[in-house]
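[#protein-structures] MJ: dropping Short-chain dehydrogenase here for a structure pass
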Amino acid sequence: MDNPIGWARRALVLGSTGMLMSLCIELVNQGITVAAIARTPEGLDRLQLKSQGLEGRVVPMALDYHNLNRLSHWIAHFQLIEGPLDVVVAWIHPPAVPVLETIVAEVHAYRNMPWQLVHVVGSQNALNPFSWRPSPPAKYQQVTLGFKIESGVSRWLTDQEIVNGVYGAIVGGQEFSVVGTLTPWEKRP
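AK: finished. structure tokens for Short-chain dehydrogenase:
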């Protein structure tokens, strides 16, 4: 498969063992080293099994990303060993700003060239838009997860639809994108 994000060598994915596991596999399949953070080692073990034999690799870390000291230390350690991060995909439960600020500070400590911060948020952000932005050289992108309406019936997005939307945002570079729809709001499942 062609690699439309061939400039990327290293990615950090928070939320790597849930709905974004397939995104991690796709990135690894393209030769990217993926720093995968999840709360439980079991999910990380599944991710490593699924990524065996692919061109890139997974560097797993079981931690709660709200433990900012531990998160900061691990990101710094990863970059010291592997090199600076090119892409960060963060699906973070609130409060998100302290986690995002910690990530940005650590990436900036090792990288002075532009990099992508892809922040995945739920549909509730349509009502309360996320206003925080990192300082350059980080390029902030927000991907809002909506829902689908088929034959008049609404449903939440599938894992694959989420992955396709987030990957499309990485490739396309749009500052804001919506996967699915956010309207009509009263049709949310």
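MJ: nice. The two ends are 35 Å apart (CA to CA).
AK: one more thing. Strands lie at 10-14, 33-38, 57-62, 87-91, 115-121, 138-145, 147-150, 153-156, 176-179.
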